Amino acid sequence: MIEPDFVTSTRASYNTIATGYAEMFGDELKQWPLHRHLLTWFAEIVGDGPVLDVGCGPGRTTGYLHGLGVDIAGVDLTPGFLEIARAENPDIVFTEGSMLSLDQPSESLAGLLANYSLIHIPDEVLPEVLAGFHRVLRPGGHLWVAFQVGDEPRHRTEAWGHTIDLVFRRRRPEAVEALLSAAGFDVRTRVLREPQGDELTPHAILVARKRPTSDLD
Prior knowledge:
Blueprint: H1 5-24, H2 28-31, H3 33-46, E1 51-54, H4 60-67, E2 72-76, H5 79-88, E3 94-96, E4 109-115, H6 126-136, E5 137-148, E6 154-159, E7 162-168, H7 173-182, E8 185-193, E9 203-210, H8 213-216
Helix pairs in contact: 1-5
Protein name: Methyltransferase
Pfam family, one: Methyltransf_25
GO molecular function: methyltransferase activity
């Protein structure tokens, strides 16, 4: 299968800036108490797991949930991120891969996180990605989606002194919720917070449940 251009550019860009990114956002969870508390709650509702962090980056969220006792693994496009994630979290399995073609068996996961990782997916590809999430989650399993809120994409061509090609797609929570519903999920929790610090946009977190088979009859 020919890899889409946006996948190639996302991998190459993040591989170029992996070290700078990891250093800049190393203590991000410490600065986001609401985010941290919501992740703790997510750990409770997914129970023993297993859980997959899709687009895990340098693995900080993966490591936080692992520290709470969640049976979690991470997958990411970027070798540079995975090298950092494995070094910092030697007890967690991190795999190179794409959310467009998850290797997990159908209905094998209790939870899945797309924590600011759908932001590089074009709108026309999102239904395909969400269908893949639906396939690997058990009926009743939970999906976490976090993203920046807005209407216009932001194209970055430079970061930490390097040339990159990354498009950050901001979306409205109601639009993402509609896509989740069409994919077979029910959104159970909606959180919207205003920008803080140097942030430019509000942030949204949606937690959805894959509809149990009984709900589809």
